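Rotation project, supervised by the postdoc (A.L.). Task for the rotation student: set up a whole-complex structure prediction and record inputs and outputs verbatim in this book. Inputs entered:
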Amino acid sequence: MEKGRVILNQERFSLTIERLCHELIEVYDDFKDTCLVGIQSGGTPLSARINDRLNEILGDRGMPFGKLDITFYRDDFRTRTQPLAANATEMDFIVEGKKVILVDDVLYTGRTIQAALTALNHYGRPVNVDLLVLIDRRFNRHLPIQSDFTGMRIDALDDAYVKVEWSDVEGEDQVLLFGQKNDVS
Amino acid sequence: MATIQQLSTRHVLGIKYLTAEDIHLIFETADRFKEVINRPIKKVPSLRDITIANIFYENSTRTRISFELAEKRLSADVVNFSASSSSVKKGETLLDTVNNILSMKVDMVVMRHPAPGAPQFLSRHIKANIINAGDGTHEHPTQALLDAFSMREQLGDLQGKKIAILGDIVHSRVALSNIFCLQKLGAQVKVCGPPTLIPKYIEKMGVSVEHNVRKALEWCDVANILRIQLERQDLKYFPSLREYALYYGVNKALLNSLDKRIVIMHPGPINRGVEITSDVADSEHSIILQQVENGVAVRMAVLYLLAASR
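Outputs recorded:
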């Protein structure tokens, strides 16, 4: 089994998160009427990390923080490229009139984001939605969807697979690039 | 990366034909749908390209409304058909009726029929996915799934838990499906009722038999109380409803005299004052209305998972 190549190591990983947090502060200032929504399952550890770091920097201001599962909103669920078994959605607030920071780990075809926007509509009409991703795979988009806050841009072939690992799950914060999805152990 | 799981079957004809893994997958999916139906907007677009026919040859309130709501909350298109107001009255056969409905491009069929095995018969002759919503005295799989799902909510994992099924076992499709389902989940099952309403060789299925309601209630964690199905009883199985209520009915005094709290369930419709008194049905022991709520979530899960296997 081919081992993945590290494209973001532990040190640069934490720098990137730090930068993303400060970019958010630049735009959102005191985060009034703003909420953070992580997309299950890849986006939730990232959004939790960002939420924690923002609370450390600014003090806990009780910004609503939700986890959104989009399995039931996918347009490709019967092609079985995506899991059928859904993750939990934890949204104990509605987004009506709020600014939403939508968080995912990897922006690839854009279909996940499209499904997430549909799902988000079921929790009210947000004032605006910004997209934050750790990795933007530039040349693989199927839809006109771009990120507003980006950790790292990479150019990879369609076959390649990007895996984000977390210290509390896999033991180390890092991003790996695999030649093919089947190579992921 | 979550793994891609799916059911081992294209139809849900009975619990007998499902594996324990299937049942667990349905429950996990139903957990998610339960969250969906408690949102302000209780709808997801998963089945927007699917058309479902609800074909009911027998009367139904809960099951029919529950299926229809489940279908609508998954954004499926729904057509309803009931035998009493259709060409069945003119002598059309089951297969002809269903084939005619299917030629209008229907993808899934939910059917209730008085003849045991009707959904199995249909599944051999048509292409659509079939969900059995009750076939005679045979099976009612989605009811058993929602019953077990509701028990799981109260007790956690059902492995080793004690479930008593009380009442008219011999005429009950709910009892049979419940026994299959609970056994696949590792629970112990006891049936209780007058000897005339207990099938003769039911011990062969690995369930125990009790004729004393108090003993059954003292033994169990959950009592699933079934309706006396007068419409299916062609002869006298017990002298009178009053006598049945006296010896086999569950009342508050009996429940209070137990030294533990048990969960009371009933698949409906209730014959109040016969198998269960009103003060028990409406008590804090009873989860009868939670069962109904869970019914929608469980049926959404079944429809969703079957649609994915198309």
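Student's summary: Helices of chain A lie at 10-28, 43-58, 111-121.
Supervisor addendum: The longest strand of chain A covers residues 128-137.
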